[in-house]
Design a protein that fits this description.
The chain is of the alpha/beta class. Helix content is 32%, strand content 23%. The protein has a single domain, classed as Maf protein. Strands 1, 2, 3, 4, 5, 6 and 7 form a seven-stranded mixed sheet that branches. Bound molecules: inosinic acid.
């Protein structure tokens, strides 16, 4: 079955395609470029669920086909849950007025590391909410992974905050682990497991 993934993030697209390839599901992910949607998708909600819905709704309104979107946040205990739903734009204020307006992954990582400087509580978690439009109805699926924030970057795989997030039970950050392992245990991987389970139900 075909399912459109409402994302312009090519890292997420790659991860989810790989996850589904190894999960023996019959889901074929279709990208936004394949359906001719070439704009940005607005993301103005204040919760992961609201943003996931907004992204999926935008694409459902565009094509009326089954589709899903993911919204993800990194929550850091010592920062009272920041950056959370603002994970993509965390360093935006710092970048404003500088050469670029949108923060890079490195800008966001640097801000997290500087805010955590000297703090011993490094506990954090990633949360993902997937919103699925399936036969015109909306369904939600969630995934979470706990871990800690390292004191410096390690590894070059993945994207976003991966180089500073070490999942519980592992010595490596997500950016040091093979994608197959990240996908097995990650926030997004677990949310996709729930999606697949739902779509496999008779
Ligand atoms: P969004 O779901 O597109 O709003 O993602 C928010 C931000 O969270 C992204 O820009 C990344 O910086 C970060 N992020 C999302 N997923 C991951 C992940 O799997 N690993 C590391 N960072 C992520």
């Amino acid at each position: 079955m075909e399912l459109i993934f409402a994302t312009n993030n090519l890292h997420k697209l790659h991860e989810v395609k790989e996850k589904l390839r190894l999960s023996n599901s019959n889901i074929q992910v279709v990208s936004l470029s394949e359906i001719g949607f070439l704009q940005d998708i607005p993301e103005t909600g204040t919760t992961l669920q609201a943003n996931a819905l907004q992204k999926a709704q935008t694409i459902y309104d565009f094509c009326g086909k089954n589709c899903f979107a993911d919204d993800t946040g990194l929550e850091i205990e010592a920062l009272n849950g920041e950056p959370g739903v603002y994970s993509a734009r965390y360093a935006e204020m710092i970048c404003r007025g500088v050469a670029r307006n949108a923060p890079t992954f490195d800008d966001n990582i640097s801000l997290v590391l500087s805010k955590l400087h000297g703090k011993t509580n490094r506990k954090a978690c990633f949360k993902t909410v997937i919103a699925l439009f399936w036969n015109g109805k909306i369904h939600y699926f969630e995934g979470r992974i706990d871990g800690e924030i390292t004191t410096e970057k390690h590894g070059v795989e993945g994207f976003g905050y991966d180089p500073i997030f070490r999942p519980d039970g592992y010595q490596e950050t997500f950016a040091e682990l093979p994608l197959e392992i990240k996908n097995r245990i990650s926030h997004r991987g677990r949310a996709v497991d729930e999606l697949v389970k739902f779509l496999s139900e008779p």
